[in-house]
Amino acid sequence: MSGAVExxxxxxxxxxxxxxxxxxxxxxxxxxxxxxxxxxxxxxxDGKLPMTGKVGGEVTPEEAKxxxxxxxxxxxxxxxxxxxxxxxxxxxxxxxxxxxxAPDFTGQPAVLNGTxxxxxxxxxDKGVHARSAVGVAxxxxxxxxxxxxxxxxxxx
Length: 156
What we know:
By secondary structure, the protein is α+β, with helices and mostly antiparallel strands. It has helices at 4-11, 61-83, 108-123, and strands at 29-32, 35-38, 89-100, 130-136, 145-153.
């Protein structure tokens, strides 16, 4: 099923990917009441990480920002897997992003703008959210970025 949100993705030249299979013992997303919480989404493309390493080291901030956009697409796919239709998103409530950072890198918020900007482009005012951008030593599979989102749904 494809609605207005997926039409907007297509208009932006983007395709909603398949849900990234879990790497361990968890679900990609769960629904509790009117909220959907995603697991941390890596920037997987066709089952692989396009880049690995630390931001501010092997990965530039600009590359990491693009990877954060991919994380957002994967998060939307995870939301759709439990909500059934992205048009049910009433709003994105919270985004938490983790950036595997070189020791002196302090640009985590700019990296996570990749996620925030994509959600705004796709969902408009419904994509405006609270956010945390956290620098960490290492992420699973040596991914540069990981993002989780929480969304509120309308009634089915």
